[in-house]
From TrEMBL:
It comes from the Bacteria. The keyword Transferase applies. Its cofactor is pyridoxal 5'-phosphate. The keyword Transferase applies. GO terms for molecular function: identical protein binding; pyridoxal phosphate binding; transaminase activity. InterPro entries: Aminotrans_3, Aminotrans_3_PPA_site, Class-III_PLP-dep_AT, PyrdxlP-dep_Trfase, PyrdxlP-dep_Trfase_major, PyrdxlP-dep_Trfase_small. Belongs to the class-III pyridoxal-phosphate-dependent aminotransferase family. Keywords: Aminotransferase, Pyridoxal phosphate, Transferase. It holds the Pfam family Aminotran_3. This is Aminotransferase class III-fold pyridoxal phosphate-dependent enzyme.
Amino acid sequence: MKLFDVYPLFDVNIVKGKGCHVWDDKGQEYLDLYGGHAVISIGHAHPHYVEAISKQVASLGFYSNSVINKLQQEVADRLGAMCGYDDYQLFLINSGAEANENALKLASFYNGRTRIVSFAKAFHGRTSLAVEVTNNPKIIAPVNDNGHVTYLPWNDVDAMKAELAKGDVCAVIIEGIQGVGGIQVPAPGFMQAIRQACDENGTVLILDEIQSGYGRSGKFFSHQYDGIRPDMITVAKGIGNGFPMAGVLISPKFTPVYGQLGTTFGGNHLACAAAIAVLDVMKAENLVENAARVGAHLMEELKKFEGIKEVRGRGLMIGLEFENPIKEIRQKLLFEQKVFTGVSGTNVIRLLPPLCLSMAEADEFLNRLHNVLK
Ligand SMILES: Cc1ncc(COP(=O)(O)O)c(C=O)c1O
């Protein structure tokens, strides 16, 4: 059987990882400024993580959501304390798209409405509603194109207020920092204005922190720079450091109803063991603070580079916009300088390294980028 060929691939076979480095099958080492697409939070093959998952799988990898799973409560307690949302409720699933799908469903169950506001260049996943709120017609299949969604311009307070004032908007969904959209940080005041308009119009505010959350921005959640509290927060990627897992953090104003949401694999024992190990390491190694410190250093140095049009981001979620397409720069970074980076559109390089990136590794990246751009 052939693989369904939907991914344009680099001709590299990664077989091993450690911290912020990965190795291919020929033994070549690479510096990982991509984190497997913002997924690796505590670093590749962290010994505590390896031990926790190994122990768990040796005793119980999976049992269903029809029995008590104390590990789920431990994830909820630990996550609530660490991110400042102790009073919220946690629903566990397996992927980012599923997290947004469930958050949107719950919003609609809550207020009975069907219209969603999303934003230009938004990306929220590829399942039915998650893809409909994603502002990319190329990946919205006709069956998903159901007219639920109004896409508004990014950072446009007046357009947002006017749309919500119609009084029939179920939910606003917004990324903490737009990732696929090119590392777009919301302008000061935009998040607060959305929060206020949602309150005034009975609209649910869903913060997609799947890429920008879990410490990546230098705070646990990027929206915490804006001092707001959303009604729901979706998380995935870094929560399991590569183990597929996701969650919806749900405000106390939503009352759970038996059977209304559900999943076979969500919150399974192995996933919870991974998530607990991630939280252990994030705390012990102060990785949120590290992301803030190393990210600030990277941004400051990158702004001195000639040839980069704009440097945007927070913490270790950084976009480098160039005047021209970056394909060749990214190829040279990978094949000549042995550095993995991400991309947004044609002109933006995305940096999404593990949150344990050291100052020395950041400087090493700057040297290698300099070698390409000089
Ligand atoms: C902001 C955001 N939301 C949702 C998703 C979808 O997550 P997943 O691929 O785990 O379904 C992504 C993935 O890149 C994302 O960046």
